[in-house]
Amino acid sequence: MPKTNPGRFFEDYRLGEQIEHAVPRTVSGGERALYHALYPARHALTSSDEFARACGLARSPLDDWAAFHVVFGKTVPDISLNAVANLGYAQGRWLAPVYPGDTLRAVSEVIGLKENSNGKSGIVWVRSRGLNQDERVVLDYVRWVMVRKGDPAVPAPDPVIPELKPALSVEDLVVPEGLDFSSYDFGLAGERHRWGDYEPGEIIDHTDGVTIEEAEHMIATRLWQNTAKVHFDATQREDGKRLIYGGHVISMARALSFNGLANAQLIAGLNGGAHANPCFAGDTIRAWSEVLEKGKTAAPGVGAIRLRLVATRGGAPGALRDGVGKYLPDVLLDLDYWAFFPI
Amino acid sequence: MPKTNPGRFFEDYRLGEQIEHAVPRTVSGGERALYHALYPARHALTSSDEFARACGLARSPLDDWAAFHVVFGKTVPDISLNAVANLGYAQGRWLAPVYPGDTLRAVSEVIGLKENSNGKSGIVWVRSRGLNQDERVVLDYVRWVMVRKGDPAVPAPDPVIPELKPALSVEDLVVPEGLDFSSYDFGLAGERHRWGDYEPGEIIDHTDGVTIEEAEHMIATRLWQNTAKVHFDATQREDGKRLIYGGHVISMARALSFNGLANAQLIAGLNGGAHANPCFAGDTIRAWSEVLEKGKTAAPGVGAIRLRLVATRGGAPGALRDGVGKYLPDVLLDLDYWAFFPI
Amino acid sequence: MPKTNPGRFFEDYRLGEQIEHAVPRTVSGGERALYHALYPARHALTSSDEFARACGLARSPLDDWAAFHVVFGKTVPDISLNAVANLGYAQGRWLAPVYPGDTLRAVSEVIGLKENSNGKSGIVWVRSRGLNQDERVVLDYVRWVMVRKGDPAVPAPDPVIPELKPALSVEDLVVPEGLDFSSYDFGLAGERHRWGDYEPGEIIDHTDGVTIEEAEHMIATRLWQNTAKVHFDATQREDGKRLIYGGHVISMARALSFNGLANAQLIAGLNGGAHANPCFAGDTIRAWSEVLEKGKTAAPGVGAIRLRLVATRGGAPGALRDGVGKYLPDVLLDLDYWAFFPI
């Protein structure tokens, strides 16, 4: 029996199974600094302890996507090592800020299984949760992946497809305890546009671009302890390219979106997301956003805006799909999320 | 009205105007470690808490240039986003050490304006200050940039050119509270040359070289939240090159200068500086210094030396300008600064 | 007299001489995060404060190899700046964990000298120790290097070759105070194989590969304040390549070995090591291990396993030398070490 982890195949998952993912991780100011070094992140709440305190938090939390990547990375060896494709996300919620000093671990529950008609692979739905050292759930999301079968002879399980919301509603979102935007400093935050200045249908071109290097995306992906071979090993593909972790594109696009969405201080919900095309070193990533929906929360001065965040390596802001509904070849990411804004 | 920041044009500046720059930043051991990873920095005072305590400080401060870059980075969106050229620095003073845990913000005052005779651009002089969470000024410097006019029809302002010292005198420098070099450990610091061993006119070849990669300068420049497009976006120039942030060259040259100036423990003043030629990935940076002037401070065992630090990508130590006074093509940086040494 | 450090030549070493190396270094969560960003490190004890506490430690220590690199880096300017070759390691022992906040310095004693028959160089054996801020030795190892003579006319010293153990025995190893694996969580650690599951002679293929970039190995090597020119300066070699610091390959191989040796939580001893062939950017590093020997310690639940760790850029697991005993050209590292495992 080999000592190394071959990963799980489709037939290895059981409906309702709880998977405790390995290698808990303590984060510090180091992860925080690296996040700012790898992405042009400038949102004030995750940049300054003083700004965060003025908004009612204990201090500046780790970027919400950094928390996501740490949790996601832990799930990779059990969920997606043999995945053919990362198909989607739904019902993601950030439930508590993650601070330097916190230790995160991850657990997943198998909530859906459906073998493909070819009998060679199947779709696995998991609900993954990140927990901190106090066993508090800080993040909760559903993702589904296509996984190869190890033994095609194993019979297909009864198909169970979980019912998933196309999008969370404002009521589903959880505002961090104490968050208060009533004396929000727009000057220090970098832009004067408040919740009321954004309208559904509005398209925002974030204008800046970043050309990606191999060293950068590998440093980032290792930082999240994501071990998928394709990100690191140039011998895995015929063309010698390393596939960039989709989460790297998410964080890059989110950071670029500062220019136009500087007051989108916290990520609250993940409604869905597609890694529309693979991203490689040398690509220059740009981003645009579309305002989808708005709502108010019960917290003082805290509004929520639902946004589509699109990362591209070219093309005009707003251009997403071709005539038959297929993503344009330069579209890398199509993300649907909720963020908290000062009203 | 677009939501993104178009930057300011020449006609947008008013004499005496105070600009509060956005996005305060809390630094930690993470920024400290990254500084050591990006530059071959080895000065003992910014490397070891124990060494710093033995010199009278609370603990090891962040490198003085790291503090400069954080403050400088905050000024970019308001001062140099539409700058055609970064023309000079003067009267820079480090007024208090920056420690992990400190939160920095920046403010600038417009102290000079002069439209160019072509009517298409002008020169803006600003005095920028970095403040910590206690509202204490930690850094203060003047810089001037050439900025494009957005609308050439706007009439020129009355020209005001601030009077700037060609160099600070020793009396202008501020020694960090408590600094005491009277029991300085030259062995741990790495070199035995003290203040008395340097003489004006002396040229020091720092001998080492570092070949720069795209990933490194982008990681550094993002770390300082400097957002100028030309550093990150390979599509901004015909040749696909990314222009390296001048501050990256400063820090690289300063770190290389350890070899010969290991006891130049703290940067005290910035008299002037020119980014003589653009620097690109692939360049191998070397450095040499010239001793310009010396003085003593009132602090125990603390002397000051004024140095010229030159970064090159080739050429002999001491070679700076051609016959008509133009910088040689391999000279990247000509910096005039004061440092504190043990006497 | 030049102000820069020319390094020591063979004739500059005296038997019994104590060398106090320069530039103490305080490590923080920043160094910890960078280690995880540069290597695919996932061992739970150096990843999670909670996991470390459950094993009886105060919190999660810095990776043992990071501690080694910091100490090693300090010795470079005095020991290997003019070294022609790094010949070997022996009797290395990690004596106490290094935690964020600790300050390390290094001292070496010259324990052997032997001039080569060509009269142009000689071999220097040193015993180097790393000490923390409490003057506690945290690491102790012997290494020997071939060093050029500065002046061939200086007569050869009496040859003294230290007696070195081919390998430490289990009794030589020092278990960190308080370490207790009796309630070890194999699920959180990532693999279920315990001490009893490994048998001498067993070969483990760690399966993963990482393609190395210039930016990464330079960032790592600078982080350890290792200043050897060949790692940074592309003009040092005819082919423009930068030689990768051997310690970078050690850490990469150790991190890759998680896959099959996830429970090798602490490095206890370094019996020997050879950098079999030079490593350059573009190489894809893989690793395999051979179980050499086993023993138990007095600490609760703590066993020791002696392992050979081999890093390669190709070739089959187990393939090490050719017919005449020479390392195969794709072998980069052959390391012999002891690690602590849960029994």
UniProtKB/TrEMBL annotation, chains A, B, C:
GO terms for molecular function: lyase activity. InterPro entries: HotDog_dom_sf, MC_hydratase, MCH/BMMD, Thiol_ester_hydratase_Rv0216. It comes from the Bacteria. PANTHER family: BETA-METHYLMALYL-COA DEHYDRATASE (PTHR43664:SF1), MONOAMINE OXIDASE-RELATED (PTHR43664). This is L-erythro-3-methylmalyl-CoA dehydratase. It comes from Poseidonocella sedimentorum.
